[in-house]
Specification:
Chain A: Pfam families: PTS_EIIC (PF02378). The complex is a heterodimer of chains A (370) and B (112). Chain A folds into two domains: 162 residues, no CATH class; 180 residues, no CATH class. Helix content of chain A is 69%, strand content 1%. Chain A contains 14 helices and one strand; from the N terminus they run H-H-H-H-H-H-H-H-H-H-H-H-H-H-E. In chain A, helix 13 runs antiparallel to helix 14. Chain A is globular, with a radius of gyration of 23 Å. The two termini of chain A are 20 Å apart. Chain B has 112 residues and is α/β, with parallel strands linked by helices. Chain B has one domain: Rossmann fold. The chains are: A mainly alpha (370), B alpha/beta (112). Strand 1 of chain A pairs antiparallel with strand 5 of chain B.
């Protein structure tokens, strides 16, 4: 079973797809966030003369974000089968969209389409005169048709039921459970600073947003925004405590970490955290927990209508915008103070090279020799 | 020993380059020659030439996602890890590469 899971590489294919998805979410997310913050609303179609710039922006972003299931399906199928996977992935992703199987449907559809294309390439033998037909007609036609129909007739409906059930469950959460849910979301969003766990939560939160539940994705992105700023704030707290917690290199790094945080890119904090993983995760995790708990409990699970944008997400939160701001502030303050307190004092002239870092034992499960 | 490799992570702005840096530092400490190609979100940088690959004793792929040009390493001895392993335990990883390639570590005292 373990060998099968390793060979099937579910996680690797999903992460590859997410790596293609992220620039689209960031780009489109920023466009829709600006558009909606300035009064635009995403439209079904743009009729010349009946829209302004901000409506155009909201629509641009909204259309792109509405196709995320298609993008994830195409990405997964591509990761499995290479170029021949793109056509069936695309068709199946659209099928998932039309049968309301959403993001989960897109993920499942991507695997089906990819493996089908892969299997046809490997096992479907054609005479040599038909070799040219294989990539141009046989693979795209057969794999798209079969995986598209599997999506529409077999997979789609149970997935849309599941999504509905999950949506209903989350909508019925009340005060305390929202608080707990938010706290867990906040921690999971940040424990690996934009790594696989963060991206899995992101995929989950995007699924929910497609169902109109905006709290989770807001909790995720606001902690992504706040954490890098929190590490910057830790510098000031430490200064006030007459403590020196960063090397010169780290202080230089912070100058780009903090602005990256403001625009919602949590990865800016990785160079800082990597030098002191345990304490970094602890401080960021506590901050994220407070952020998620505040946000989810005080808004009853509501949030920004856009999935990306940092501070730009706040105006789309309607009357709850101040809760979002409060959650960011709490996260920055908690992460900053905790990190400044638990981090060891270092000599003012310390540099990276002088530090002796003890190295973790290598995880042999992770090594594949080929 | 001569090592070539590729690093690539999900988002392609941080782990990719940290893994490159850590593996380069660790390999140099042991007196190895190393060249790591990065496939970040910006595209391919520090591209491996056909000659680099031909001369290499071993190929290290520190990747979380599908990379382009994996077929270049056909017929080479390859080791695949996640970027996390390369970042967390670079020295032990390079030592392991020596073990797998069957090459002695030249600069023995830098070990560990």
């Amino acid at each position: 079973m373990k060998a099968f899971l390793k060979k099937a590489n579910f996680k690797g294919h999903l992460l590859t797809a997410i790596s293609y998805l992220i620039p689209i979410v960031c780009g489109a997310g920023f466009i829709i966030a600006i558009g909606m913050a300035l009064g635009g609303k995403s439209q079904d179609s743009l009729v010349i003369g009946k829209f302004n710039l901000f409506q155009a922006m909201a629509t641009l972003g909204g259309n792109a974000l509405g196709l995320l299931p298609v993008i994830i399906a195409t990405g997964i199928a591509f990761s499995i089968a290479g170029k021949p996977g793109i056509a069936p992935g695309f068709v199946t992703g659209l099928a998932a969209n039309s049968i309301s199987a959403g993001f989960i449907g897109g993920i499942i559809g991507g695997y089906i389409a990819g493996w089908l294309a892969f299997a046809i390439l490997k096992y479907f033998k054609v005479p040599s005169w038909a070799k040219g037909l294989m990539p141009t007609l046989i693979v795209p036609f057969l794999a798209s048709l079969v995986s598209g129909l599997i999506m529409v007739y077999i997979v789609g409906t149970p997935v849309s039921w599941f999504t509905e059930w999950l949506t209903g469950l989350l909508k019925s959460l009340n005060g305390t459970s929202n608080l707990l849910f938010g706290a867990v979301l906040g921690v999971l969003s940040i424990v690996d600073f934009g790594g696989p766990i963060n991206k899995t939560v992101f995929a989950f939160a995007l699924t929910l947003q497609a169902q109109g539940i905006n709290g989770p994705v807001t909790a995720l992105q606001l902690t992504n925004t706040a954490t890098p700023i929190g590490f910057g704030f830790a510098f000031l707290v430490a200064k006030a405590l007459r403590k020196n917690i960063y090397t010169h290199e780290e202080i230089e790094t912070l100058k780009s970490t903090v602005p990256m945080g403001v625009v919602n890119i949590v990865e800016g904090s990785i160079p800082i955290v990597m030098n002191d993983i345990v304490r970094g995760i602890f401080a960021a995790g506590l901050g994220g927990m407070c952020e998620g708990a505040i946000l989810m409990s005080m808004t009853q699970g509501e949030g920004a209508t856009v999935p990306f944008g940092g501070f730009l997400m706040l105006p789309t939160m309607g009357r709850n915008w101040w809760v979002g701001l409060l959650a960011i502030m709490a996260n920055v303050i908690v992460t900053g103070i905790v990190y400044a307190l638990i981090k060891k004092d270092i000599p003012a002239d310390a540099t990276e090279n002088q530090k002796q870092v003890t190295e973790e034992d290598i995880n042999l499960d992770d090594i594949q020799v080929m | 020993m001569k090592i070539v490799g590729v690093s690539a992570c999900t988002v392609g702005i941080a782990h990719t380059y940290l893994a490159q840096q850590k593996m380069e530092d660790a390999a140099k400490k042991l007196g190895d020659e190393i060249k790591i190609e990065t496939q970040g979100t910006i595209g391919i940088e520090n591209k491996l030439s056909a000659n680099d690959i031909k001369e290499a004793d071993i190929v290290i792929l520190a990747i979380d996602v599908k990379i382009s040009g994996e077929e270049r390493f056909e017929n080479k001895k390859k080791v695949k890890v996640s970027t996390e392993t390369a970042i967390k335990s670079p020295n032990k990883l390079i030592a392991k590469l020596h073990e797998i390639a069957g090459k002695q570590i030249l600069n023995g005292k830098a070990r560990g």
